[in-house]
């Protein structure tokens, strides 16, 4: 059985520890899946996003690979930086992951980890440079329905309360989906364990849903 797994992650300055947690959990996740019976072969990809003020650093895509070492080497070049106001380019990051990456396997999992919502009063009352929404014209409906059309299962890792409205809006568009709690993690090793548990759960849920 073969799975495409894409981490979509806010890579602004506040996310440093979570980026490290994702990096450190990848090999454990892929090794675990390979040792399952029957084995699950995982292609792992990454799409990092920041904000519109970050220019050429706004998006950072690492294409799918089955090589843990290759993936870890590539992700080692991802650092937490940038970000302007509180909301980030969430829709741009999700859209890039869905439309610009080479999804291939029949089971497709997207695990999104973020601490702040997209731009627009629909999602937040925090300080927002773009209160009318995404300046490139993306909408949640457009991005999430494209995701569904591509057969990609969406899962979310919650870090702060600021993404709760986003979750409600997203679920009103595509229905209920699992939300994993990454808040209040006491130490780096605990964060790796949370990433591992959430990722394994997301993959197994997607496999089960495809089999229904």
From TrEMBL:
Keywords: Secreted, Signal. It holds the Pfam family VWA_4. It comes from the Eukaryota. Signal peptide: none annotated. It is found in: Secreted. Residues 4-199 form the VWFA domain. PANTHER family: ALPHA-PROTEIN KINASE VWKA (PTHR47763:SF4). This is VWFA domain-containing protein. It comes from Rhizophagus irregularis.
């Amino acid at each position: 059985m073969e799975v495409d797994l894409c981490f979509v992650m806010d890579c602004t300055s506040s996310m440093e520890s979570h980026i490290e947690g994702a990096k450190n959990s990848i090999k454990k996740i892929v090794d675990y899946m390979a040792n399952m019976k029957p084995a699950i072969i995982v292609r792992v990809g990454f799409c990092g996003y920041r904000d519109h003020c970050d220019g050429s650093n706004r998006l950072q895509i690492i294409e799918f690979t089955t090589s843990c070492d290759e993936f870890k080497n590539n992700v080692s070049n991802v650092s937490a930086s940038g970000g302007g106001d509180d909301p980030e380019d969430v829709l741009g990051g999700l859209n890039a992951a869905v439309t610009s990456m080479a999804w291939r396997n029949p089971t497709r999992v997207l695990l999104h980890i973020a601490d702040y919502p997209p731009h627009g009063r629909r999602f937040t009352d925090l300080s927002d440079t773009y209160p009318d929404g995404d300046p490139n014209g993306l909408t949640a409906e457009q991005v999430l329905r494209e995701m569904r059309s591509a057969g990609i299962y969406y899962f979310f890792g919650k870090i702060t309360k600021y993404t709760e409205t986003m979750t409600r809006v997203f679920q009103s568009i595509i229905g209920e989906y699992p939300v994993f709690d990454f808040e209040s993690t006491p130490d780096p090793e605990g964060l790796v364990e949370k990433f591992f548990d959430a990722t394994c759960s997301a993959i197994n849920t997607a496999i089960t849903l495809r089999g229904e």
